[in-house]
Write a structure and sequence with these properties.
It is a single chain. By secondary structure, the protein is α/β, with parallel strands linked by helices. The chain folds into 2 domains: 215 residues, P-loop containing nucleotide triphosphate hydrolases (Rossmann fold); 48 residues, no CATH class. It is 32% helix and 26% strand. A 6-stranded mixed β-sheet has the order 6-7-8-3-9-10, with helices on both faces. It has a 4-stranded antiparallel β-sheet with strand order 2-1-4-5, covered by helices on one side. Helix 4 packs across helix 5. It is globular. The mean pLDDT is 90.
C-alpha cells in the first residue's frame, strides 16, 4: 500500500506552484510536510489527496495512477481534512461525521446498522461520542477539528491527510490533536506550521521551499540549524537524540534572506 508522487508539478495559470516533486509515503508512518508560507504545502496536500490532478508528472495510489482510480474509490481510501473546512448548515456533530459515509452509499446500498457502528467508532476515536448531539456552531475550534477527523475516519481510509490541522488552536488542543492522530492505525501525512510539533510527532519530515521538495528524512536529519537558516531564515539550535527526534530552540535575533545571501550569518 503506497501513496506516491513522481516528478509532479502543479501550476495555477502560468505560475508554477509545485515543481518536479517525487515522494513516496511509507505505510503506517506519520509524515510531516513543512516549509515557509508560499512553499506549496497546501497544493501538495491537494495533489496527494487526489483533489487536484498534477499538471505534470504522475500521482499514484497503491501502484495505480490516481486519475484512473475514480473519485468514489479515492474517497474510500484517502481521508482529507482541509484547513478551512466549515459549514453554514445547522447540523449536529453526528450528522457532520456521517458525511464520511457518502462514498459508500447509493440507491443499491442504503444506510445500514453497519454505518451507524462506524460513525460511533469514529466519534469514540476522537473522544466526541458524548457530544454527538451538539450543534456544529456551538463547538470550539478544537472540537470542530476533532469532528473533521472523525468524519475522515468514517470514510475508513488507509491514508489520513491533514492540512495545518492545529491552526487557530491553543497549545493544549494542538498537542492533544497531534497525539490523537499519532495513535490512529493509519498512514498520516500532515502539513504542519510548528516545526517543534513536526519534530515531536513525525516519523519523517519532508521540507519544501519555493515549490520544490528539498529534503526528506528523520526529524533530526532535516531540522538542522543550516536548513532552518537557509529555508526559514531563522537562527536556531537543535538538540537531537539517537532515535532521530529533536527539539528546536530559536534565537531571538532576526535573520533576513539578504543576510543569508551576503554571508552575514553563520
Amino acid at each position: 500500500m503506497s501513496l506516491e508522487l513522481r516528478n509532479v508539478g502543479w501550476s495555477a495559470g502560468f505560475k508554477k506552484i509545485i515543481e518536479d516533486v517525487s515522494l513516496s509515503v511509507k505505510p503506517g508512518e506519520f509524515l510531516g510536510l513543512i516549509g515557509p508560507n508560499g512553499s506549496g504545502k497546501t497544493s501538495m496536500m491537494s495533489v496527494l489527496s487526489g483533489i487536484r490532478p498534477p499538471s505534470t508528472g504522475q500521482a499514484f495510489l497503491d501502484g495505480k495512477e490516481m486519475k484512473k482510480v475514480g473519485r468514489r474509490n479515492l474517497a474510500r481510501q484517502i481521508g482529507f481534512v482541509e484547513q478551512q473546512a466549515d459549514t453554514i448548515d445547522r447540523i449536529t456533530v453526528r450528522e457532520a461525521v456521517s458525511l464520511g459515509r457518502t462514498p459508500y452509499l447509493s440507491l443499491l446500498t442504503p444506510w445500514s446498522t453497519n454505518d451507524d457502528r462506524i460513525i460511533e467508532d469514529a466519534l469514540i476515536a476522537v473522544d466526541m461520542a458524548e457530544m454527538k448531539d451538539r450543534i456544529w456552531h456551538t463547538l470550539s475550534g478544537g472540537e470542530k477539528q476533532r469532528v473533521h477527523i472523525a468524519r475522515a475516519l468514517a470514510q475508513e481510509p488507509t491514508y489520513l491527510l491533514l492540512d495545518e490541522p492545529t491552526n487557530h488552536l491553543d497549545i493544549r488542543h494542538q498537542l492533544g490533536l497531534l497525539e490523537l492522530v499519532r495513535r490512529l492505525q493509519l498512514t498520516v501525512v500532515a502539513a504542519l506550521h510548528d516545526l517543534n510539533h513536526a519534530a515531536m510527532f513525525c516519523d519523517r519530515i519532508a521540507m519544501m521551499d519555493k515549490g520544490r521538495l528539498i529534503a526528506i528524512g528523520r526529524p533530526a536529519d532535516i531540522l538542522t540549524p543550516e536548513n532552518l537558516r537557509d529555508v526559514f531564515g531563522v537562527r536556531a539550535s537543535v538538540d537531537a537524540d539517537d532515535q532521530g527526534r529533536c527539539a528546536i530552540r530559536f534565537h531571538t535575533s532576526i535573520t533576513t534572506l539578504a543576510d543569508i545571501k551576503e554571508g552575514r550569518v553563520a
